[in-house]
Amino acid sequence: MEPKRKFKIVTAKNSRVILPNIFTLVGVCIGLSSIKFAFDGNFQFSVVAIIVAGIIDGLDGRIARLIKGTSKVGKELDSLTDVISFGVAPAFIMYFWKLNELGRIGWFICLIYVIAVALRLARFNVNSSEEPTWKGNFFEGIPSPAGGILVLMPLFFSFSELTLININYDLVVPIFFVTISILLISKLPTYSFKKIIVPRSMSIFLIFGVVIYFVLLLLYTFNTIVISGLIYLLMIPISSVHFMKVRNKFTTQSGDIDDHEDIL
């Protein structure tokens, strides 16, 4: 008698690829749901949905690398979902909240931002496989998830307990959109936090710090996000200086540097 074959829907290798892609698709569903919340006027739910989509976006790639489930389809799918969750969704949220009061100019500003996100992701896909190892700790411009959170900063601020100053949102929101759009397509080096090496003796303090941060995020959600966003913006000049030092060190050691130009 022939041994019975076990029925398998997918092979073990394919299952490793499917899991991170499921995370990615869940993230895009949450990102699209944020538009529905904003359309209904539930702006708090909409911004929380974007935050959750950002967390999922940070996890799916790491899960894929951890279980060796990376794929070309997953890479392209991740970029497409980023355009929706951190490009289209934040633009719609802010349009429904404030930019619609500016008429055509408000919609034009939204279009500029979405185009900047698309260009930034296109450049990332082209250059990601060509960067030297030393550049792995840096992005060119701010990443799209960070951009999606930063353009929502005025809305986060309006929900926070930090509203001690009167802010003209009709002026601040367009300025934020244009500024973040420029940062997205710029070539300013920003930290990627992908290759952080933590000494074993410090790992417990890192875990403790992460737990404390998430506790603050649960208790003082919008305050914590606003302060985190400001810290991130302040880190951009620091990352640029650090990048220059690392590049100079690499140039000195190798005598050459790959600084090719591309159309983006």
SSE blueprint:
Layout (H helix, E strand, L loop, with lengths): L11 H28 L3 H24 L5 H26 L6 H24 L10 E3 L3 H7 L2 H7 L9 H17 L3 E3 L11 H17 L1 H34 L10
Helix pairs in contact: 1-2, 1-3, 2-3, 2-5, 3-4, 3-5, 4-7, 6-9, 8-9
Quantity of strands, as a count: 2
What is the CATH top level name? Mainly Alpha
What is the residue-mean pLDDT, rounded to a whole number?
82
Q: What strand line-up does the widest sheet have?
A: 1-2
Could you say which structural class the secondary elements and strand pairing correspond to?
mainly alpha
Give the H and E element order.
HHHHEHHHEHH
Fold-level CATH name? Four Helix Bundle (Hemerythrin (Met), subunit A)
Radius of gyration, in Å, reads: 21 Å
Strand content: under 5%
Which architecture does the CATH hierarchy give at level 2? Answer: Up-down Bundle
Helix count from the secondary structure assignment: 9
What does this 3D model show about the protein?
The chain has 264 residues and is mainly alpha-helical. The chain has a single domain (12-248), classed as Four Helix Bundle (Hemerythrin (Met), subunit A), CATH 1.20.120. The protein has helices spanning 12-39, 43-66, 72-97, 104-127, 144-150, 153-159, 169-185, 203-219, 221-254; strands spanning 138-140, 189-191. A two-stranded antiparallel sheet has the order 1-2. Helix 3 runs parallel beside helix 5. The chain starts with 11 loop residues before the first helix and ends in a 10-residue tail after the last helix.
